[in-house]
Amino acid sequence: MKKIGILGGTFDPPHIGHLIVANEVFHALQLDEIRFMPNHTPPHKRKTNKVSDSDRLNMLKIAVKDHPGFFVEEIELHRDGASFTYDTMVELNSLEPESSFYFIIGADMIEYLPKWHKIDELLQLVQFVGVKRPTYNDVTEYPVRMVDIPEMVISSSMIRDKIWNRQTIKYLLPDSVIKYIEENHLYES
After folding, report:
1. Rounded to whole angstroms, how far apart are CA atoms 7 and 183?
2. Is the peptide bond before 13 cis (omega within 30 degrees of 0)?
3. What is the CATH number of domain 2-152?
4. Which of 36, 44, 45 is nearest to 73 (CA)?
C-alpha cells in the first residue's frame, strides 16, 4: 500500500516552513510521497489578497521541484466553492483505493479539529499527523500522530507583510520562489 502525505494550505506564498514540515514528516513516517495541496477557498479563512490560484500553484511547483518525493495535488483548485477536506479525501480515496493517506496539520489546526466539516467521517479516511507550532496547543481527543519538527515562527502572512514593506525575505523562501514573486510583482504595495 502506498503511503501518501497530504499537506494542505493556501501556500500564499509557499515558504521554507512548509518544506521543512513536509520533509520531517516524509522521513519520520517513511512515506512514499508528500503532496502539497493548495486549496481554492478555505472554509476557515477569508481570501484577502489578489494573488491568483495560478500564481500560488506556480510558486508551489517551483518550491517542490527539487525533492523527488514532493508533488503538487491540484484537486481542490478544480472544484468550486469551499475546499472541505472531507470532500477531497472522499475523492482521493475513490481515485486511489490502494493508498493510505496521512493528512498533515499544524497545532493551530489540531485545536480547530472539533469544528472541521464531517470530522468523524474524515477520521475514517485519513490518519492525521500533527506538528507543533509555537503558541498553539497540540492536545486533542482526536487520534493525531505527532511528529517532532524544528519549531519555527514563519508564516505566509508575515512574508507578505515583509514584501509589502520592502523588507528582506531572503532564506524564508526558496530563491526560485523569490525570483517568481519579484518577476510577477506579487504582494507589492
Report:
1. 27
2. yes
3. 3.40.50.620
4. 36
- pLDDT by residue (tens digit) across 25-61? 999 999 999 999 999 866 555 555 579 999 999 999 9
Rounded CA-CA distance 37/54 in Å is 13
Taking alpha carbons only, the member of 49, 45, 47, 23 closest to residue 36 is 23
CA dihedral (55, 91, 83, 148) in degrees, to 10, reads -80
- AA identity, residue 70: F
CA 136 to CA 186: how far, in whole Å?
Answer: 30
Residue for cell digits 515562527?
Answer: 153
Mean pLDDT for 96-107 is 95
- State residue 43's pLDDT score: 58
What the block records as the C-alpha cell of 13 is: 506564498
| 137-174 pLDDT, tens digit each | 778 899 999 999 988 889 999 999 999 999 999 999 99
Taking the domains of the chain in order of start, what are their residue ranges? 2-152
Supply φ then ψ for residue 97, to 5 degrees: -65, -15
In angstroms, the CA 20 to CA 59 distance is 16
Residue with cell 502506498: 2
